[in-house]
Amino acid sequence: MNKITIAIDGYSSCGKSTIAKDLAHKLDYIYIDTGAMYRAVTLYCLQNHIITKDGVEVYKIEEFLDDMTIGFQCDPNTKKCEVYLNDENVEQDIRGLIVANNVSFVASFKEVREKLVSIQRELGKNKGVVMDGRDIGTVVFPNAELKLFVTADTDIRSKRRYNELRGKGEKVSLEEVKENLEKRDHIDTHRKESPLVQAEDAVIIDTSHLTRESQLDMVYELVMEKVEYLKSKIQ
Ligand code: DC
Asked: What domains, with CATH codes, occur in the chain?
């Protein structure tokens, strides 16, 4: 079977990465979590005091972007991929609320987006990739063969994220988590540089009431239909 590019976009914590990981695993494709890349840049900005309470010093971001390396290393057995910033595994450090509270802000900078989009295109250039984010089907791979736009009810998303953070031992309240999600959605959909919008040719998947298995079955079927269609066109 010829490999295709699968672009998955949608709001925060609506289940994109679960769908993307499960699908990549089932298809034996590479999974790229582009949110992790924006989170890694944010972590760097926080650690180096580039973000202050008065905002961000843009010229400093530009300076460090030139020297920064960002990528993934995958365990060949578990197929789990973890994000590396300047050769350091930062997978754990990027998942907390402090990074979550600042990431949409950092992701709104043109300089940051240009750098990460070019890395993402390089990572996906051979197809056989499932990439999730906010601008994958619109900016990174506008010619992706299959585009999904994932949504879910805000209360359900907040509860899922809250359970995930509490499970990791973070002391957060449900209100804080909901506030963070709503704020991020607002910034992500209203920013000037590649805002989150549904690509015209994307299929909408509402995960509010879907189990992990049923959402995987649904998207796997879409992939198979697309692959069959592409095959029929070249025959
Ligand atoms: O998917 P996530 O919640 O880990 O993403 C973190 C943030 O990164 C999100 O609030 C918006 C930003 N992001 C983006 O702007 N573009 C992407 N392709 C992926 C993430």
From this structure: 5-220 (3.40.50.300)
Per-residue model confidence (pLDDT) at position 73? 93
- For the Cβ of 107 lying below 6 angstroms from any atom of ligand 1, the answer is yes
* Residue 108 CB less than 6 A away from ligand 1: no
Let me know if 228 is exposed, middle or buried by CB neighbors in 10 A (0-12, 13-18, 19+): exposed
Q: Which of 55-59, 73-77, 102-106, 113-117 has the lowest mean pLDDT?
A: 55-59
* Whole-model pTM over 0.90: yes
Let me know: does 29 contact 130? Beta carbons within 8 Å: yes
- Does residue 34 line the site of ligand 1, with CB under 6 A? yes
Asked if residue 83 lies in contact with residue 36, where contact means CB atoms within 8 angstroms, the answer is yes
Q: State the Cα–Cα distance between residues 44 and 67, nearest whole angstrom.
A: 12
